[in-house]
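Study this chain:
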Amino acid sequence: MYHTGWYVAGRNIMLDLQTEPNATRERILAAASHTFARKGYQAASLDEVAQFAGMTKGAIYWHFRSKNDLFFALLDHKFQLHTAPVPEDLRVAAATANPRQAVTVLLQTMFARLRTDAEWPRLYLEFIGQARDNEMRERLARFHADGMALVAQHIRTMQGAGLAPGGHDATTQAAFWGALFDGLMLAWLINPHTDHDALITHIVDLLWHGIAPDAVSATAARETAP
């Protein structure tokens, strides 16, 4: 744990830490989520996080060594919140008679979950854009690798349930779905009024039939070629 001394501005830091450590940490993360969302990651300060949490800045440093460290903890916290329901989502999808409908509803459910925390994707993209030093990039790379490993694990579950192709390795499919989901997230941030449920339905239909041109389209393209 990290701390800068027992007393800050005439207050005893230990008074801020007498509550259960996990409860204090959750309180700090909630305050950070609010403060970063209101002001943006770059403009927000740990002083403001501490003020919103109703504790000293020293109490923040007891748990987190820097603003970057706090953000990574928040990143992990949000990731856990958004991914914890996925095993149940997969169980429901596996029990659905129509595999294409199951995959469509699965993606729609996951994306709807993302939309309930509208400011978080903006903060995530802002943070990535500002993480230029090597240590930050390495931490982001490790976080991304861990996330892709979890997605690959879920892909293997989908393969076992007949919801994902068995002829392609789970890691490759995880990279594909991750890129697709990131693209949907970015499109939503740019134009939140898009009907993303309908868009996801069309995307799954496209993928289900394959992106290779059909015979009619290929023939027409050859006939119109100069």
About this structure: Residues 1-66 form a domain with the Arc Repressor Mutant, subunit A fold (CATH 1.10.10.60). Residues 22 and 28 are 10 Å apart (CA to CA).
